[in-house]
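Researcher: Quick test of sequence recovery. Tokens follow.
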């Protein structure tokens, strides 16, 4: 893994939408896309998607996270993860959170590399935002309706990301520019939560993990 690189001028924007009526639809993709709420939180799924979708656009902020950090993150009460499928393949995902005061933050949204550049990005963002406005009903029940949908993006993101958000109806709420230290996005230093190798004191046989014992007992 190479050393982090300091990018001298990264512009970061906070984008927001204050009314669901401001959402503008995108052209339909060439194939059907379906969207499923991940009802069972999975640290493994979210961090794998973070790497697969984010590596080409320098998503590296979560590289220092441990497995426990990821597990705690996906179990947050207001967080939801949605999986996008197309042509029988995982085409993308989005991760958003119901916050206090009616704010709904879109933490992550993006396509897997095989679907980038095929005209699916606008539709993915549209469907993400539609669901963000449906918080309290479709997901995050009991949190109340959304009054603001917002996200962050930067010049490290996909070159079309900013224009895509604007076309969907987002407006710039804040902007800042400064240096940023960016780790090499080609290598995600995430160890497994436990060592799967056989324990030496079991005669070469792997002893059961406590979680496995629970499965056997149940």
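Model:
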């Amino acid at each position: 893994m190479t050393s982090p690189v300091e990018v001298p001028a990264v512009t970061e924007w906070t984008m927001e939408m204050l009314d669901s009526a401001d959402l503008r639809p995108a052209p339909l993709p060439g194939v059907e896309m379906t969207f499923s709420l991940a009802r069972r939180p999975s640290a493994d799924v979210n961090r794998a998607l973070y790497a697969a979708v984010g590596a080409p656009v320098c998503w590296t902020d979560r590289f220092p996270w441990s497995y426990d950090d990821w597990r705690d993150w996906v179990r947050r009460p207001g967080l939801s993860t949605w999986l996008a499928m197309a042509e029988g393949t995982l085409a993308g995902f989005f991760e958003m959170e119901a916050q206090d005061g009616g704010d709904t933050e879109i933490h992550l949204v993006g396509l897997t590399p095989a679907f980038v550049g095929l005209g699916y990005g606008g539709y993915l963002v549209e469907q993400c935002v539609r669901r963000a406005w449906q918080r309290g009903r479709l997901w995050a029940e009991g949190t109340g309706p959304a009054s603001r949908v917002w996200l962050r993006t930067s010049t490290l993101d996909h070159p079309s990301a900013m224009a895509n958000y604007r076309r969907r109806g987002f407006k710039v709420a804040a902007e800042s520019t400064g240096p940023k230290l960016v780790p090499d996005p080609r290598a995600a230093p995430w160890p497994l939560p436990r060592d799967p190798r056989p324990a030496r004191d079991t005669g070469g046989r792997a002893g059961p993990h406590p979680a496995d014992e629970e499965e056997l007992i149940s």
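The chain is about 20% helix and 30% strand.
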